[in-house]
Every structure is written in structure tokens, then in C-alpha cells.
Amino acid sequence: xxxxxxxxxxxxxxxxxxxxxxxxxxxxxxxxxxxxxxxxxxxxxxxxxxxxxxxxxxxxxxxxxxxxxxxxxxxxxxxxxxxxxxxxxxxxxxxxxxxxxxxxxxxxxxxxxxxxxxxxxxxxxxxxxxxxxxxxxxxxxxxxxxxxxxxxxxxxxxxxxxxxxxxxxxxxxxxxxxxxxxxxxxxxxxxxxxxxxxxxxx
Length: 202
What we know:
Layout: H1 7-11, E1 20-22, H2 23-28, H3 33-42, E2 45-49, E3 52-55, H4 63-71, E4 76-77, H5 79-85, E5 96-101, E6 113-118, E7 127-131, E8 137-141, H6 143-152, H7 154-157, H8 159-170, H9 177-184, H10 188-201
Helix pairs in contact: 5-6, 6-8, 6-10, 8-10
């Protein structure tokens, strides 16, 4: 006689997934769409963003960043968002500044985002990653790169953002102006004014 699968066997492939996972990850683990829908209906898993899910009972933080990272794997925090993360500004971002390589599609998400298209030849300069949860990461630019971007995009960001960030950065004992100037050589629109301000402040 045919026996209906138990709830345990139905959810067993979840053990192969982290607490936060994409729908595609679940499919790769052997979960079919009907089984995933059953788990959603039972509350075994919860949707936290477009194509992004978590196991029931798992507390999450930064769900906005996780949704951005899931939708755009090369998404990178930049400008005000990156400066705020590095404690180089007192401004509180009202939206996320997110950079993608020029020519990359900007996904539509129910999150306040200001997308930026950065040149593909310099996109990786000063870029590292932040671990969010369950091996999901999002890019972020270094303090030096974020200052340079504020200078080179001052026609959009205003003159004060980069200059105030530079002042705060210089007050840190670990700051290396020579490293900042070396990186700025790849960004001619920022280098001249940045060099001038460093001469004034040092």
C-alpha cells in the first residue's frame, strides 16, 4: 500500500541548505516546486525577499541587503552607504547607494536604492565583501575608494561629502595618505582636488 511521505521526509533536503537560501538553491538540493510550496504553506520556510527564503524560527538581520545581494551578486555598497558603514560621515542614508558594473541590469526591488553604474575597468578597485548570513555576501568599497568616489562624483554628491569623509579618515591613526593618492591615480576626476585637499589638511 502506498504511504504518504512524512513531514520529516518532505523537509529533509532543507538540512542541506543554510538558514537563508535562494529558491534556486533549494531546487539544486532536490526540492521540487510542489514540495517548496507545501513547506511555505506549513510555515516550515518563510519568504523574506524576491527569490529569497529562510527557515522558520531563524532570526535575520539586514534582509534588505540580503535581497539586494540575491538579486544582483555583484552589487556593491558605495558612496554614502559605504561611508556610513566605515563611520566616515554623520549623514544617515535614507536609501542604499549600490554600484554595479556599467552595462549590468539593475533589478527592480521593493527597496529604496539609488543604483550607480561604475566603469568595468575600475569596478573591482578597493572592493571587498561583507558576509551577511548563510554564506550570502554583498560587495563594499573600502574607505579610500569611497572617499575617491565622493570626490569624483561631487557634482552629484556635493563637495562636503568627500571632504568631511577625508577629514575623519585622516584623524585615524591607521590612515595612509600615500595609499589614497596611489588609488586616486586610477580616477583622474578625483585626483587633482583630492591631492590639493590633502596638502591643505596635512
